[in-house]
Amino acid sequence: MAEAHQAVAFQFTVTPDGIDLHMSHQALTEIYLSGVRSWKKRIIGLKNSVITGVYPASPSSWLFVVIAILATMYTRSDPSMGLIAKIQEHLPVSQSMSNQCQTLVSAVLFSTMLWLLLIFTMRMCLKQLLSYHRWMFEKHGKMSNTTKVWVALVRIFSGRKPLLYSYQGSLPNLPVPAIKDTVKRHLESVRPLMDDAEYERMTKLSAEFESSLGKRLHWYLKLKALWATNYVSDWWEEYVYLRGRSPIMVNSNYYGMDFMYVTPTPIQAARAGNSLHAYFLYRRKLNKEELKPWLLRSAVPCCSYQFERMFDTCRIPGTLTDTVQHWQDSDYIAVYHSGRYFRLRMYHAGRLLSPREIEFQIQKILDDPSPPSKGEAKLGALTAGDRIPWAKARMKYFSSGVNKRSLDYIEKAAFFVSLDDDEQGGMADDPTRLDSYAKSLLHGKCFDRWFDKSFTVVYFKNGKMGLNGEHSWADAPVLSHAWQYVLSTDCFQLGYNAEGHCKGEVDASLPQPQKLNWEIPPECEEQISGSLAVAQALADDVDVHVFAFEEFGKGKIKRCRVSPDAFIQLALQLAYYRDQGRFCLTYEASMTRLFKEGRTETVRSCTNESSAFVRALEGGEVRPREMSLDFHSSEKHQHLYRMAMTGAGIDRHLFCLYVVSKYLRVESPFLKEVLSEPWRLSTSQTPLQVEMFDIVNYPEYVSCGGGFGPVADDGYGVSYCALGDNMFNFHITCKHSCPDTGANKFGAQIRKALRDLLQLLCPNQTELRKTEVKRPEFKKDL
C-alpha cells in the first residue's frame, strides 16, 4: 500500500491534548506543481485560442489598425465616415470622462470592429480560394497561369507562422456531389466486374433510383450539408466504427512497425524510456499547437481536427453503440506486463521524467515479482472479443469499487503500454520473422493489448517495438505522424550510451509504479474466457505476410513518367487477376482532409482501363511499344484519386444516402445492393514523413510501415509504403479459412507483377537494380 501513503497530503490524530496534524510536504509540493502545470496549460490554450481565432491576422495587427485610425484622425480626417461620432453618441460613459477621452474610446471600438471585419473578410477569401481544386488536375510540373495566381493569393491570405489548428476556420465544407454524377460513376466502376446481363440490370436499378427515391434522399443530405460541418464524418464514425458489434481486434484496429534493419538498443526498458519520453514531447507540441499544419505543395492546408483525440482517449463499449471518450491531459500511462496492470506517472516535481528515469521505472515493473490478481491476467481479452458481452460485463462488474477505479486508470491514461516477453526481429535476422512480428502487433495474445485505447505501444524483449491503433478516433496517417516523430526522436535526438541505456541521471525520490488492484468474480472470469475464445479464433485465422521489395522503387517509376501509386495499383490488379482468375471490387483509401473534418474517401481502383490492360497483357497482346493501355489506366487512376480528394467520390455519398434511407425507413434495392458489395481487395498507402528521416544518408533507418486485417473473409488487405526512391514495403493479410487465398502466395504474385510491369515500361533494361546493403541489427550509440 505504498502508493496509498504517497497519495495522502496530510494526516491527523486525535489525542487528549487536541488534534495532532502531520503535513506531507512532498505530497503538497506535488499538488502545487501539478496545479502550476495545469494553469500553464490553460494559459497556453487561451493564448493559442486567441491566435487561432484571429487567424490569418495576428493579435498584434489589432494595435496596427488602432494606431492607423488614430493617426488618420490626428490629421483631421475621419476614416470612419461618421461612424466614430455615432459610436460616441451611444457610448455609455460617466460624467467624469472628457470629450477627448470619449473620442479615443470610440475610435478604439471602431478600430476593433474594423479589425474583426478585416479578419472575417480575409478568412472568407481564403475559404473561397481553398475551394479551388483545378490545380490538382493539372499535369505535374505544368502549372497554368490561373493556378500560379491562385497559389500567390493563398500564400498572401494564409498569414504567417500558422499553428496546428489555424486553418480550421478557413477550410471549405465537403460538397455533396450531384446524384446523377454519383450514379454514373458507380455504373462505370462496376462495369469490369459484371457481364452484360448483370450490368443491364444494375443500369435499370440505378436509373430507377436516380429518378425517384434518390432525389428525395439527396435533398435531405443537402440539408444536412448546410447545417453540419461535414455531412459524412459523424455518420462514418458512428455507423462504420462505433456501431459495429464484432471484435475490433483485426477487423478494425491496425498496426505500425519499428525500423526494418536496425534496433537502436537491445534493452527493452531503455527503448521504452526514450520512446515514451518522445511521445510526451510530441504531446507537448500538440497541446501547444506547435506541430506544423499539413500542407499540400507547401500551400494548401489539410484539416487537423483528428489530432485532438490522439492522447487521453478511449473507446467505451455500449450495448447498441460504442462511444469515444476524451479526457483532459493525463500525467500517467497504463502498463501491462506478465498479467499485471500498472499505473506509471510520467511527471515528477512538475517536470516530465527523463528517458533514463522512465527506463528506471519500466525496469521496476519488469523486475516486479508480484503475481496477477485472480482474473487479472487475461482481462484485456474483453476488449478483443465481441462488443456486447464486453459492454454488459463493464456495466455489471466494473461500474463501482476497486474495479471501476482501476479501469478508470486504464481508460483515462495518456495511452497504453504493453511489455511483451517475446522477441521479434526484422530483416537483419530473418525476413520471414517480419510475418510473426506483424501478426503479434495486429492481435498479440488477444489479452495483452487494450484494444479500446487510442493506441497501444508494444515493447518486445529484444528492444523492438510497435503499436496497435484503434481506428474510430482518427485515420492511420495521423497516428503515423506521431509514430515517425517518436522513431526519429528516439534515434537521432535522444540516443543511448555505450551500454545501450538511456542517457541522464535518476532522481532517487521517484515514487514506485502503482500496481492496479482487481476483484474479478468467477462469473466475470467466464465472460473473459468467452471473449478470449472468440478473439483467439479470429487471431488464428489471420494470415500475414510482410516483405520489402528492393529491386526498384518509386524513383525508377517516376523516370518512366508514371505515377508510383497508379503503378502499384495496376500491379495489384494484375497480381489479383493471376491469383484468382477474375477482377474484384477494389478499395483504395484516399483522404478528404482538404475539407473541414474530412477523413477518407474510396478510390475504386479496378477500372475499365486497368482490366482491359491486364486482359491484354495476360493474352499476350501488349508489346513494349504498345503501352497506350497502360498509360490510359494510369491516367484514369490518378483522375479518380483526385476526384476522391476533391469531394467527388462515390462511396461516401452513397453511404450517406443509405443512412438517410434508414432514418426515413424506406427501402432502396439499389442502395442495398451497392452497400453489400464485398471489398475483396482493400488497399492503403502508408505515408512517410520525409522531413523526419534522412533516408539518403541513413538508409538503414527506414520503418517497416504498417498494415491492417482483411475486410472480406475471402479477400486480401494490402498496405504498402514507398521507402525512399529504391524500395517498397508490402503488408498482406487474408484468412486461412478461405482456401482460395494465401498471403505468401499473393506476395509472390505482387513481386512478379511489379517486375513484369517495369519490364514493359523499360524494355531496354536487362537487369533490375537490387539494393544489397549489409546493415547491422543493433546500433547502440548514435
TrEMBL record:
It is found in: Mitochondrion outer membrane. InterPro entries: Carn_acyl_trans, CAT-like_dom_sf, Cho/carn_acyl_trans, Cho/carn_acyl_trans_2, CPT_N. Its EC number is 2.3.1.21. The active site is at 471 (proton acceptor). Pathway: Lipid metabolism; fatty acid beta-oxidation. PROSITE patterns: ACYLTRANSF_C_2. Residues 1-46 form the Carnitine O-palmitoyltransferase N-terminal domain. Pfam families: Carn_acyltransf, CPT_N. The chain crosses the membrane at residues 50-74, 104-126. GO terms for cellular component: mitochondrial outer membrane. Its main location: mitochondrion. One of its GO terms (biological process) is fatty acid beta-oxidation. Residues 174-751 form the Choline/carnitine acyltransferase domain. It is an enzyme of class 2 (transferase). Coiled coil: none annotated. SUPFAM superfamilies: CoA-dependent acyltransferases. It is a multi-pass membrane protein. One of its GO terms (molecular function) is carnitine O-palmitoyltransferase activity. Keywords: Acyltransferase, Fatty acid metabolism, Lipid metabolism, Membrane, Mitochondrion, Transferase, Transmembrane, Transmembrane helix, Transport. It catalyses: (R)-carnitine + hexadecanoyl-CoA = O-hexadecanoyl-(R)-carnitine + CoA. Belongs to the carnitine/choline acetyltransferase family. This is carnitine O-palmitoyltransferase. The gene is LOC117748404.
